[in-house]
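pinned: reference chain
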Amino acid sequence: MTYTRYIGVIAAAVLAVTAGAPGPAQAAEPGVRPVPAAADGTLAPGWRLTGEGTDRELVWRSTAPVPMGDARVDFYAGDRLLGTPKPGKDGRTFRLDLQRQQSTGELTDLQVRSGGREVDAAGRTETPVGNRAALAARLPAKLPANSVDPGKPGAYTTTTGAYTLDPVRLPGYPQPVEMQAVVVAPENAPGKRPLALFLHGRHVTCYQGDDTSDQWPCPEGSAPVPSYRGYLQDQRLLASQGYVTVSISANGINAQDGTVEDGGAQARSSLIRRHLADWADWAADPATAPEAVREAPAADLDRVLLVGHSRGGEGVNRAALDSLYPPPADQDGYHGPVGWHIRGTVLIGPTLFGQNPVADVPSATILPGCDGDVLDLQGEVYVDGTRGVSDGAALHSAVYMVGADHNFFNTEWTPGQAEAPAWDDFYDDPERPDAVCSPGTATRLTADQQHRAGSTYIAAAARLFLAGDDNARPLLDGSGTRAPSADPARVLTHAVGAARAGGFLPDDGIGVVGARLCSAIDPDRDTVCLDPAKPGLSPHFATWETANEVGRGAVALDWTAPGSPAAMTPAAPVSLDGAEELALRMIVPPNSTGTRLDVAVTDAAGQRAPLGEVTVDGLPGSARTASYWARELRVPLSAATAAGLDLRHITSLELTPRSDTGKVWLMDAWGWRAGTPAVREAALPRVDLGRTTVQEGDSGVRTYRVPVQVTGAGTGQVRVYVVQRNGTAVEQLVTVRPGGQDIDVPVEVTGNTRYSYGAEHNVVVKAVRGAVVGAHRGGISVEDDDPMPTFTVTPVADRVTEGQPLTWRLTLSEAADVGLGVTFATRPPADGAELSTRDVDPGWLASHADVEPGTDLPLSRVASLSLWTNVRQGGLTGELSLPTVTDEVAEPEESVRILFVDDSGEPQDGGAELTGTVLDAP
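pinned: its C-alpha cells
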C-alpha cells in the first residue's frame, strides 16, 4: 500500500550538553560531550523539526521543566545564532520558527545556550569539564570602612501604599500590560523629594499553590506573582533617608516577551516612562493623584533614580536612553513629553542583549558572584561598553558581590519570604557541592545577608547620583572601601568615567610588545582572550550576537618567569595631566594569589619613570562562576612628576611581572583623581535598525535594504556587523548623521520554485563614539512561498526473518532545497504478538529512544521511541529501517505497527500507517 502525506523539515544534528539555563543552574554528569547524529541524519534525543508551510518549527524539549528566567534561551548551530525560541506552556518545550532560519543548508551541531553557556538535556546548567569542585574558596580581605555608610536607616518614618491604573497597550504585545505599583515614602519630609523607581525582572507571572505559569492574564483560579513587591526593604531604607520610592509591576511584559527581538527592553522602557509621565502629571496637579501618591511628599522629577533587576535592568537603561533620545514612534508605547530627569541607574544582575549602555547617565551595576540565571554577568558591559562613547564624565561602576545569587535581591523570588513558589537560582548538587556558591560555604551569602548588602549599595548610588554626596563615591569607584552595613558580604568595585582622564584602551590602535592583544569574542583560540573550552567565565568577555567582534578585548600577559616587560603604546599620546594616580583594571585567574607586577610609564621625550608595584589576587571562583573579573589597582603618579615626565604626553605603559608565574588580562588604565564631576548629556545621533519581511518569489533576483533610522543631533560612529551563515560577521565602522543613509546594507533574494527554509539576514550595530543605539538588531526576513512536497511510503521488506531489517521507502513528489523527513511512532498491533525492545538492535534503540539497556518492553510502550526517515537536500528518496536481531528464544510471529505522527507525537487523521512482521529464525 502507498501512503501520501505532508512532511516536516529534518536536519543532521547533534545535541551539545554542557552548561547554562534561564532557571536553576544544575550540574550534570562529568565528561558529557555532544551526542552525534545517527548515520541516517536523525536528530539527537530532544530535538525535532515539524510543521508545514509557514508553520515549520525547530523544536527542543527538555527532559525536566525549565523555570522562567531572565537570561535568553537561544538555539545555535555551532557558533551561528539561529534565533530565540518560544517557550511552551509545559515549561519544557521550546519552538523556533524556521521561516526565519538564516541558513538554507543543513543544521549541524545544534545547541541550546543561555547566559553564555550551553544547556543540558534537562535544561540545566552543566558544569564544564574540568575541576568542578575547585580548591577551597577564600574570601577577599575585608576592606576598610568608608567615611559614610548609606546602609544605615535615616531619620524619617515611612508610609506604604499602592495604586492600580488602567492597563496600557504596548506595540507588539497582544495583551494589555498592567499599571500597578507600590509606593514607600518618608513621612513629614519637607520640600520636593528625589524619586527612585524600581522595576523587577523576568519571572513566572502566575501561581496556584505550588504550580506556576508564564501566562497573562492569569488563568482563573491563579493569582499574579507580586514580583514588584520584592524590593520593599530597599524602598523602606531609601524612604527613611528622604527619598520617595515606587516599584512597578511588569508581569504583562514578562509573559509576552519570549521571542521579542530586543527581549522586551523597549516595552519595559515604555512602561517606566508611562509611570514617570503620570508622576509628572501628579506633581503638576496633586489632586489627580492616587491616595498613595497624595500621602507622600511631592516628588522631585528633576532628580530620578531608576533601579532595575535582571531584564528590568536593561529596561531602565533603555528608559534612560529613550528619555534623552526619543525612539521611533512606531516602536514606542509612550509618545508624550519628558517631564523628568534621570540622574542615574542601578542595575542588579542585569541583562544587556543589545550591549548599548547609555554613556551619559551614571550607573552602578551589581554583579552577583553566584548568579545562576544571567550566568555570564553580562551587565559588566554597562561599564566597559561606555568607554570612549561620550566625554566620560559619567561614573559607571561595577559592584561585584561575592556569594550573591540572582533571585535573592527580590524577596518575592526568595524561598521562605515569597508568596508564590520561589527558588535559589544557583542549583546545588549535594553530590558535587560548589566550593564557592553551595549554601553553607564560607563565600555564599544567606538571603538576608544578600538583601541587606543590596539595599546598602542601592542607597550608596542614590546618595551619590541624587544627593550629590561625593563621600559615597569611594564605595562605588574602586577606591577599596566598604559599607559596614553590608557586612559580612565582601563587595568589590571598579569603575570608569567620572574624574578619570586619558586612557590606555585595548583597541585596534594600540601597539603591544611582550604581550598579546586579545578579543573578547572570536572563534580563533589564538585570538580570543579566554578559551571557551576551559572552565569559568569572564563578565568582560560576555558573548553577543556574533561569533567575532572588533574593539572589545584586553591585553593578555602570560609568564613562567619574572622580569620580561610588556609595553602598550597607544595610537596617540595619553594625557594624565592633573591625575593623582594611575588606575589599572586587571583580571587574574580565580583563586590565584600574589600576582605582582611593576608599573612604569614613558613620555613623548622617551623619559621613563617606574611608578611602583601592584599585587592582585583572584576572586573566589569555580567552573560554574563568572569570576574572571578585573580588580582595580592604583599606583601614585608622584614618581613620574618627580622624574620630570610630561604627563600631558604619555606614550607608553609598561608592566613587568615580578611573581614567578602568572596570567593577567589588562582591561584598561586611566589617570584617576578624586571627585564626581557634573554630567552634561551630549546631543548625539541615535541609530535604530528595523526588519522587513519579504516573499522569496518564483524567479529573478530582488534587492532589499535593511531599514535604518538615524535621529537626534550631530555625527557619531557606530560599528555595523552583517552576520554571515556561519555566525561570524563582516564589520564596518560607519559615521552616521540624522536623516542620513550612511548605513546601507543591501540583501539580494533569489526566487525559485523549490521548497526550502525561509532565511533571515541579520544585521547588528553597536555604538563606538559620539552615538547611541536603540534597536540594535534588524535585517531582512525572507519567507519561502513554495509548497512542501508530498511523500509516498512503500514497503521494501515488511515481512522478514529475525536478524534482518524491516524497511520502507519514502519518495518525494519533487526535490527540495533542504533535507525533508517524517516522524513515526509505534502503536500496539491490531492482533498477535508485538515486537519488543529485545528484538531490535540495541545501538539503533539507544539512538531512537531514552531507555535503559536490557529493558524488555513492547515497542509501543516505549514512550520516548521516535522513528525518523529523511530525504537529503536535492534528493527524492529515503528509507525507514527498523533493524532486528537474532535470538535463541522460540517465539511466535511478531509484528510492529507504525503511524505517522504530528510534532506532539499524536497520530494524524488519515495519516500513513505501516506494518511489519518478523518471523522466528529457522
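why pinned: Confidence is low (pLDDT under 50) at residues 1-42, 101-105, 127-134. The chain is about 10% helix and 35% strand.
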